Q: What sequence folds into this?
């Protein structure tokens, strides 16, 4: 790989002296994988401190530009090379741009080429406008209506009872008494918690209080939560493979259980599960 690339670089960086004036000849910038235009020869010539550390390899120089050079104000290619963008010069108003964005003018001054270069490299992706007409057109477009928040569907009570039965099967395998279904306290509390964890996936409720405030507190309590499992079998298996959750399911002191389940269409996890235990 020492080869023709080195020879080509030598040719492209050749320095000519015509009537006593020194001209540096640079290659046209190339488009990198992320779409950025970059001239390694120009960057190396203008930044010998970078070359001392990164060498002259194009990819290494571009790595430096991406990580540090851009924020340090280093230029990726000779600003005298065209506009570096598919947008035409006619739609860019340098005077407007400098007046509209004084933070840019403070760094790049009022040179039309440098201002256009900033717009092409940064301003466009930052949402800056190239001219007053462009800004006016954007202001005239109504903002899109916000998408409605996903609504949790009614829970599937058969899923909840399956979770109870699967947990009791696990307890039986360990010689433990089955849990009884608590329809008056734990089940409604777990149903509330299942709705809440679609908003805040935590043992802390959305209002900042403990999860156990969702039920009347008759004594020792426990809670398991989960998200993403599509079936009762999958969620019980996940809990049994987690030491803390398994400890609740196999706690010999617990005698009652309530389960909450909610499905949210279009949500990242979709399925939300809660177990509430009590002694």
A:
């Amino acid at each position: 790989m020492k080869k023709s690339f080195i020879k080509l670089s030598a040719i492209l960086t050749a320095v000519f002296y015509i009537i006593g004036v020194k001209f540096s000849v640079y290659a046209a910038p190339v488009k990198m994988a992320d779409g950025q235009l970059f001239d390694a020869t120009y960057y190396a010539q203008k930044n010998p401190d970078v070359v001392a550390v990164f060498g002259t390899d194009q990819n290494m120089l571009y790595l430096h530009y991406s990580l540090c050079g851009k924020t340090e104000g280093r230029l990726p290619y000779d600003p005298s090379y065209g506009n570096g963008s598919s947008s035409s010069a006619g739609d860019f108003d340098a005077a407007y741009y400098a007046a509209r964005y004084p933070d840019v003018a403070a760094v790049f001054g009022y040179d039309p080429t440098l201002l256009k270069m900033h717009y092409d490299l940064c301003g466009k992706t930052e949402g800056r406008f190239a001219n007053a007409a462009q800004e006016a057109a954007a202001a005239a477009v109504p903002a899109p209506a916000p998408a409605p928040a996903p609504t949790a569907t009614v829970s599937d009570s058969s899923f909840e009872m399956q979770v109870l039965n699967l947990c009791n099967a696990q307890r039986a395998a360990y010689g433990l008494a089955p849990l009884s279904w608590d329809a008056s306290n734990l089940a409604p509390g777990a149903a509330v918690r299942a709705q809440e964890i679609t908003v805040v996936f935590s043992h802390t409720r959305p209002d900042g209080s403990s999860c156990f405030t969702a039920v009347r507190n008759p004594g020792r309590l426990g809670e398991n939560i989960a998200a993403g499992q599509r079936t009762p079998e999958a969620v019980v298996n996940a809990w049994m493979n987690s030491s803390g959750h398994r400890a609740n399911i196999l706690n010999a002191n617990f005698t009652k259980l309530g389960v909450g389940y909610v499905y949210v269409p279009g949500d990242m996890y979709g399925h939300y599960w809660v177990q509430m235990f009590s002694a």
Remarks:
- The chain has two domains: 3-140, 157-278.
- The radius of gyration is 32 Å.
